[in-house]
Write a structure and sequence with these properties.
35% of the residues lie in helices and 26% in strands. It has 333 residues and is an alpha/beta fold. A hairpin with a 5-residue loop joins strand 13 (297-304) and strand 14 (310-317). Bound molecules: tryptophan.
Length: 333
């Protein structure tokens, strides 16, 4: 085991889960936040998604990291404090660790067991590294639980998870990360690119129905944790590309008119009504750089694969570069 392994638990309370779910089911149109996908079963299903032939992002991003890891490490700076948002199985960061040799690694994820398992395994493999894992919801305000002030800071945000935020919220999240990093800090971030809508759609609606199981698992989680009575056979998975908004949308579609009870409250569905469970925004390189600029970063470098499927950006915090107060939505249009 490494010199230090610490775990900090800021996991949102069950009461927050209940309030967000019931608010979302009361809303019109109905919606649930994708951060709730990642209970234990959901995290395992997501790992299975990343192995699917149709789901090109994980494998493509890994290829880019393998090919350019040395250059990335040089830009991020050795001996830093490295924060990772949404570390998941920590598979990608391993590709950078040998080259980067950070002093402190701080993985942050909302999925508690998954985070502990993968961060402990990583600490065992890198005995010189100080590992401080934090279970937290980074879509809200978050704290960095530990950090020697003298170390330069860098952050890694892989998997195009930034695309799961509405553009305005994405810009605000990038701003909060910039505040944690401080002027001159670097952010290495993976962003899925715009492409043929059919290819996109297949990535979120695979032949083996793993993504469907992942989407439906959210209802199972609500049944279990919030005393719900969703009948899973009465809903199905739908993924579609919305070209106006430049995003994949995932929905759960109700087959029939039905009423469901969650946490003692009743919610009615008409046949064909959907719960919007996730968006995954796709950005061109220029669009994403504009968003980053708005949030207070200078684009330093960008790497893509030969097919232009996926991009990895190195951004440098430069508080002078904020693009004024216009909405991010405008910045990316
Ligand atoms: N960040 C991933 C993405 O937008 C998350 C993701 C991939 C996902 N496939 C999914 C989320 C399927 C829900 C369902 O690509």
């Amino acid at each position: 085991m490494s010199k230090t392994f610490n775990f900090y638990d800021f996991h949102p309370a069950l009461a927050d889960f209940r309030a967000e779910v019931t608010d979302g089911l009361r809303a019109e149109p109905k919606m649930l936040s994708p951060k709730f996908f990642y209970d234990k079963a959901g995290s395992e299903l997501f790992d299975a998604i990343t192995e699917l032939t149709e789901y090109y992002p994980s494998r493509t991003e890994i290829g880019i990291l393998e090919r350019h890891g040395e250059d990335m490490a040089r830009l991020l700076g050795r001996q830093c404090l490295l924060l990772e948002l949404g570390s998941g199985s920590s598979r990608k960061i391993r590709l950078l660790l040998d080259a980067l040799q950070p002093r402190v690694y701080m993985p942050m994820d909302i999925s508690r067991e998954h985070l502990i398992g993968s961060a402990e395994a990583l600490a065992a493999d890198y005995p010189e590294l100080e590992v401080h894992a934090a279970c937290a919801d980074y879509s809200a305000e978050f704290e960095i639980p530990y950090g020697p002030a003298h170390l330069p800071r860098a952050a890694f945000f892989p998997g195009s998870s930034i695309g799961n935020f509405e553009p305005t919220a994405a810009g605000e999240l990038l701003q909060r990360v910039a505040e944690h990093l401080g002027d001159g800090g670097r952010l290495l971030i993976g962003v899925d690119l715009k492409k043929d809508p059919l290819r996109l759609q297949r990535a979120y609606d695979d032949a083996e129905q793993v993504t469907a199981a992942f989407n439906l698992n959210l209802l199972q989680r609500i049944n279990r944790e919030l005393d719900g009575d969703f009948e899973l056979q009465q809903f199905s998975h739908r993924a579609l590309y919305n070209p106006q908004q430049g995003r994949i949308e995932m929905h759960l579609v109700s087959h029939v008119d039905q009423t469901v009870t969650v946490a003692g409250e009743r919610f009615s569905f008409v046949a064909g009504e959907t719960i919007h469970t996730e968006s995954s925004y796709k950005y061109s390189v220029a669009e994403f750089q504009q968003l980053a600029n708005w949030a207070g970063y200078q684009a330093e470098q960008v790497w893509t694969d030969d097919e232009q499927l996926f991009s990895v950006h190195c951004l440098r915090v430069d508080s002078r570069s904020t693009g004024g107060r216009q909405e991010c939505r405008e910045a990316v249009n």
